[in-house]
Hints:
By secondary structure, the protein is mostly helical. It has helices spanning 13-35, 41-44, 57-65, 69-73, 76-113, 130-161, 166-195, 198-230, 236-244, 252-256, 259-288, 303-322, 325-344, 350-378, 384-412, 422-449; strands spanning 119-122, 126-129, 414-415, 418-419. Strand 3 (414-415) and strand 4 (418-419) form a beta hairpin.
Amino acid sequence: MREEVRNTIATRAWARWTVLAIVSFTMMAGYVVAKEMSPLQFMLEKATADGGMGWTSGEFGIFAGSRGFFNVFLLMLFVGGIILDKMGVRFTGILSCVLMLAGSAAVYGAITYTSPDPMWSVPVLGTVKRQVVLAALGFAFFGIGYEMCGITVSKAIVRWFSGKEMALAMGLQVAMARLGTALALGFSPIIALNWGLPRPILIGVFCVGVGLIAYLYYCTMDRRLDKEQSAETQNLASSAAEDDEKFHFSDMKLTIKNPGFWLITLLCLFYYSALYPFLDFATKLMISKYGVDSHLAGLIPAILPFTSIVLTPLFGGWCDKKGRGATMMVIGSVMLTLVLIVFAMPLKSSWIAVTLMCILGIAFSLLPAALWPAVPKIVPMKQLGTSYSIIYYIQNIGLMLIPVLIGKVLERNTVGDQVDYTYSLIIFAIIGLGAIVTASLLLWMDRKRHYGLEDPNINS
């Protein structure tokens, strides 16, 4: 529902932008922790005598996929949405920050103070080092707070920017999140090689701690907004209209029967299951296949989020004014898949890797700029929150399982220090083909059902 903010602190520009800066930094800190271990794979897999932990590629895949474990198996994404609706942005935001802080601290403790041995037998996963299991559990707890923080920050921005510069605020928040990813990918290897493997993890814990403190200050501003809004008179007609907009579970059957919703959901699953797990393994790929120096290897995958910081708002503005959102999704899926296919080829020039990452950065900007604004065109506003929860839940299944699969494949194709990435990259490319097919079906379905995905977002 739309918030009434006249004659309140939210009508003051300095207050709104201060809120945006606070919640965006808090979310950016979460993105730093989410990707800080990805470029450290080559160090984690070194022998302990060489400063590593002796992990295998399979164990790294288990860790990388563990972030979504509780969200998938304990349905924590849905629980987080219920908590947010019942308890509000202040309580839920603080809870999510505490979970992120505790989870990232647990990962740091597992890496710093726990020896890799002994081996533990884990159902389904087999025999795994104790250190890997403990780090993965910490990362799984972090994942609960990370996803919960994402939906809370979005709701906070809507609360403060309703009727104001909401689209710009959302775009800037996404840019800050991408910056967190880029910093983690680019600088974690440099910090780890110069000051030790646990140091970038400790920096991530510190960032989340600062984010929690900043969010506590936001809560004081939000509490003031509540008091000022409660002083505003609301007529009964407005209240009745708002009640009509409340979500009812019986309404969800309309969304579940909507083929456009499921195509959007599957596209999200395929696209992000190919992209994000690829980034988890990309730094070691740069070292093993393309011969990039380990100090610089993380900077090449960092091209992708740095590119998206600039291009995502530009593509979003184009989609707002010119439309063609479904076409943009098809093009982004094709670009992603072609890049993965070329990565799988026996081409080993570092300049090819840099060029491919630049193209992938365009795809990383193109599809999300069109995909997320498309959801409200397919799903009624009062069902939007639950619909996003379903999309994120199914996405988390892919983000949990694909890294484990890729880690096992790499483990089977490793001989000594030589790693053959061909089969793993073919798997990523096949997932990308799934995104192309789904995006094409969505374009066809839009022409049949007239969702408006090809129409501009801004009504002239």
